[in-house]
Write a structure and sequence with these properties.
Blueprint (H helix, E strand, L loop, with lengths): L1 E6 L21 H13 L6 E4 L3 H13 L5 E3 L10 H4 L4 H14 L13 H16 L7 E5 L1 H12 L5 H8 L13 E6 L4 E5 L3
Parallel strand pairs: 1-4, 2-3, 2-4
Antiparallel strand pairs: 1-5, 5-6
Amino acid sequence: MRATFIRHGQSTGNAGIPCYDLATIELTEEGWDQARRVAADWTEAPSLIVTSPYLRTQQTADPTIERFPAVPVEVWPIEEFTYLQPSRWNGTLSADRAPHLIRYWREADPAYCDGEGAESFGALLRRAEAALGRLAALPSPGPVYVFSHGQFIQAVRAVVTESELDDRGKMLRFWRQGKGPAIRNAESVEFEWAGIRWKTKPLSH
């Protein structure tokens, strides 16, 4: 089984525009260009295309779906990690969120949930584990193209590459203060299941 996870293209949120509904954030023109390049770069038809429920991943997947119209498409719960309570923080600027964000990651409590509509870091890891389990159980060897989000893909990679760490250990390594995102817009990461464990390697979209 081979599964390639693709982060969505540049979104309006990535471009610094405040958002009020995380699920309906759209791609920018640059994001659409990235999505078309992703679709053009595939060298193999997939057995399945998976997207998150969020609009920006579905838009990123659209050119790939158009290129492979006979391939089934499924929506899985692989949406982005929401660790700040949406009703309190949506529509704010990054500078407003910064003190709470820093405190959240420095305390590194994987069981902490910020409020309604948010999830704990531990819950994110459980979703990542569930997605990998679902992929491993598919009857086809793949490839499967999975359109998701940066922090979710980062969590999947942590599950695969940091299996020796507990949830807190993974959380302490997760935040990249002062650095760029671990997975860039439209970047791909490939995971391979050999019947025993998952392995991963970066791709170059």
